[in-house]
Amino acid sequence: EVPSISERYDNSFTIGAAVEPYQLEGMNGEVLKRHYTSIVAENVMKPINIQPEEGKFNFKEADKIVKFAKENNMDLRFHTLIWHSQVPEWFFLDKNGNPMIEETDPKQREKNKKLLLKRVEKHVKTIVKRYKNDVDAWDVVNEVIDEYASNDKGLRESPWYQITGTDYIKVAFETARKYGGKDAKLYINDYNTEVQPKRDLLYNLVKDLLEQGVPIDGVGHQAHIQIGWPSIQEIEDSIRLFASLGLDNQITELDVSLYGWPPRPAYPTYEDIPESEFERQAVRYNALFELYVRLDSNISNVTFWGIADNHTWLNDRAEQYNDGVGVDAPFVFDNEYQVKPAYDVIMD
Ligand code: G3I
């Protein structure tokens, strides 16, 4: 058995992995227990899985992950209370079943807004009450910034935004605080938090919300990164910037793709990936963890968006952009759970 990654980083931050319930068993389960002290659900705690129909909450799959975390003394991140993706349509339908975003009458729009905010409150309240003693960090809202949005603040023009402005964000955080208590650690989570103009758009929003008294404790940096992008300097600047607001930082969805964006061309199978790619990736992991340790007073958790290379959303992406044939290899364990050069460097 190889030494545990989380033990190695014990003095700095907890090390986590994203999981599907089926990964709690077998080899995945073994690797999880040995190397990670924190877990997060890759999908089963998202709105569409937790409240597929109005008022019909489904906690079955989520509970499996909560139970595993408890039994193995692991921290739990909750991902995610509010998001524009993987959210059921019913949230955005008015009392008559019509899409709220199509309403033109100002009075009716005001009513719809109230209704949607009540739904946000109920969703958040129900979940936070249920898991408040189990969850160590909440992704309260996910990906609310869109640097390509047509408004000058870069607010993602999701149905949440079109119907409520930024009130859905405020209500989500306030409700999480109200029912989670002051011990609930509340995060705003996003990708490309290192890259301009997105970094500053997120910063401006967070600063603004904090000034309005919205209870935000930290920023979640997804960190779906590449071997050469973004730069270590950009990553450092971003963490320091949010820390300057008095906030915690968590690295919430780390993976280091072998490719640029889009991931094309990709190696057709795992066996086609030359060892030199893993060496190149290890150099990146080395610089990254060196940085995280240097900033460890501002970083409380580093979570990989998966366990081993055999299960990663990046494999779906590699396939999708290469006519159905392509793999990626973003983690420190290979597709048979063996350690890669990246493991060796982060343990060194
Ligand atoms: O569960 C169904 C299954 O029944 C069906 O047969 C199958 C057919 O496509 O789809 C399954 O659902 C898939 C689901 O993952 C579970 O595997 C969805 O199609 C697929 O879109 C979904 O992808 C997830 C994606 O979020 C959705 O946007 C990825 O697993 C998940 O890794 C990814 O995670 C996101 C974070 O939440 C937020 N940040 C970005 C990150 C990567 O995209």
List keywords for this structure.
about 350 residues; alpha/beta; binds ligand G3I; xylan degradation; Beta-xylanase
Provide a descriptive summary of the structure in words.
The chain has 348 residues and is α/β, with parallel strands linked by helices. Helices cover 39% and strands 15% of the residues. It is built from twelve helices and nine strands. The protein has an eight-stranded parallel beta barrel, surrounded by five helices. Helix 2 links the parallel strand 1 and strand 2. The longest helix has 26 residues, at 106-131. The relative contact order is 0.12.
Précis, in short:
It is an enzyme of class 3 (hydrolase). The protein has 348 residues and is α/β, with parallel strands linked by helices. The chain has helices spanning 5-8, 26-35, 47-50, 60-71, 106-131, 159-164, 167-180, 198-211, 232-243, 275-294, 313-320, 341-347; strands at 14-19, 38-41, 75-82, 137-142, 186-190, 218-221, 224-226, 248-257, 299-304.
